[in-house]
Amino acid sequence: MATSSKKETAKNIRLAVIATDVVIFTILDNKLKALLIPIRSAHFKKNAYGFPGGMILPHETADDSVRRHMKAKAGIESPSYIEQLYAFSAIDRDPRGRVVSVAYVAIIPADHAQDIGQEAIWADARALPHLAYDHNTIARVAIERIENKLKYSTIGRHFLPNTFTLTELQFAHEVVLGSPLDKRNFRKKILALRCFGHAGKIKKGGRSRPAELFRFVKTKDIIFS
């Protein structure tokens, strides 16, 4: 039977409040962007920013909570992609008291990037200002998760509209990974997955040649080696 050097009683147990936060990514101006909202608290400077989030209510799951805060504070109701990232539990992460944050990472396509709350802004995800709480740490973990997952899954498609060219898909990968990819090898790998089908349309415009549009034909993202 496990023992403790200090008896755990209601008097000496320090309970933690559980919250959720979400790092929402998109691609704008050829950069990976993260959504920020103003953080109004006496504990932070007047123009402090951070990620959308807040406390979990007694009747909510973490998933319920993050979607509620995302809609209320970021104006986003249905991201193209969302997953639980990590639980951040540093003792001093919140100056108001003991708060554990269940963080999420989400993606919305660029064509929906303007459909956000009035006070929300997009910031360069790799050059964020000093954020409230431990949100800079959360940002680093979120970026690492997206970069790694892009290498073995099809989540890159969530940065794009429902139909896209292979060039656009490759560019999304390059922006997130921060490095160029070989065009021939990228297309060979993507088409071999058999999850991107012809949309039956051609994209015209600009100085580029007309390009065939593709769409994702599976019901969920594909994991590959």
TrEMBL record:
Residues 21-128 form the Nudix hydrolase domain. Residues 158-216 form the NrtR DNA-binding winged helix domain. SUPFAM superfamilies: Nudix, Winged helix' DNA-binding domain. InterPro entries: NUDIX_hydrolase-like_dom_sf, NUDIX_hydrolase_dom, WH-like_DNA-bd_sf, WH_DNA-bd_sf, WHD_NrtR. It comes from the Bacteria. This is Uncharacterized protein.
